[in-house]
Specification:
Order of helices and strands: EHEHEHEHHHEHEHEEEEHEHH
Mean pLDDT: 96
Largest sheet: 6 strands, parallel
Distance between the termini: 46 Å
Helix content: 40-55%
Oligomer: single chain
Structural class: alpha/beta
Number of strands: 11
Length: 288
């Protein structure tokens, strides 16, 4: 069994970005810029935003954090996004989810200029991703694909099961695997006999937020398990959606929680921000 160390790979990616950012500054006099918007006082979201800000600073990326109270109206948020769309020093705009219930998430995400949509959630980028065209990819599935690449895990012709069908992980993950010529099954809470699907899978990717849902007896020998879930138990311990101890002896590759997929997300966000900075000329004066 090979442990896929997301923390080490994320550090490698961040260093790659730092070097490229320095080159972009020296050759083009461009400093990539990212704005993150946090609405409300969700503690987990605040932690993520702080981590993104620190990662930007370490990579040489200009970073703004806009912290707004939970009473912020949708109109006020849309005004801020429009201002950031028109700010030439900002290449990426990220609105931290979830938003307060009185704000329509779809309306907000659609207001972001698609060429600044470094989260990859705008329908323009989603459509291009599904069509296998160049686009900004959602950071978590993008990070999983980089893990496969780093460990030379072949996807073509493999049976892949994605457990969870969220817009942020499950759906884009299935699209990227399909584009890589894998045979993909997407399971959700209505799936009958989940084990029947996972036992036939070469690769299982799970992202549902249910601690230890995936057990070793649900896997075939040599399976690859990518655990995107992160759950805090009553003991305070963080754990994944896969029962790591029960699954590991069945696997050829497996990601730990913590230290697996989680650290990859920020690394890939930085890559998207760098990519957006390289599109400045294309973006100038253009709304897609």
């Amino acid at each position: 069994m090979t442990l896929i160390d997301g923390k080490a790979l994320s550090a490698k990616i961040k260093e790659e970005v730092r070097v490229e950012v320095e080159e972009l500054k020296n050759k083009e006099s461009i400093t990539p810029g990212l704005a993150v918007v946090l609405v409300g006082d969700d503690a987990a979201s605040a932690t993520y935003v702080n981590s993104k800000h620190k990662a930007c600073e370490a990579a040489g990326i200009y970073s703004e954090v806009h912290t707004k109270p939970s009473t912020t109206t949708q109109e006020e948020l849309l005004e801020l996004i429009e201002k950031m769309n028109n700010d030439p020093k900002l290449d990426g705009i990220l609105v931290q989810l979830p938003l307060p219930k009185h704000i329509d998430t779809t309306t907000v995400l659609e207001a972001i200029n698609p060429l600044k949509d470094v989260d990859g959630f705008h329908p323009y980028n989603v459509g291009r991703m599904v069509s296998n065209l160049d686009s900004f990819l959602p950071a978590t599935p993008f990070g999983v694909m980089r893990m496969f690449e780093e460990h030379n895990i072949e996807l073509s012709s493999k049976n892949c099961v994605v457990i969870g069908s969220s817009d942020i992980v499950g759906k884009p993950m299935a699209s990227l695997l399909t584009n890589a010529k894998a045979t993909v099954t997407v399971c959700n809470s209505r799936t009958k006999d989940l084990s029947a699907h996972t036992k036939a899978a070469d690769i299982v990717i799970i992202a549902v937020g249910v601690p230890h849902l995936l057990k070793g007896n649900m896997l075939k020998d040599g399976a690859v398990v990518i655990d995107v879930g992160i759950n805090r138990l009553d003991t305070g311990k963080l754990t994944g959606d896969a029962d790591f101890e029960d699954c590991k002896d069945k696997c050829s590759f497996i990601t730990p929680v913590p230290g697996g997929v989680g650290p990859m997300t920020i690394g890939m966000l930085l890559k998207n921000t760098l990519k957006a900075a390289k599109l400045r000329d294309k973006r100038e004066g253009k709304n897609v």
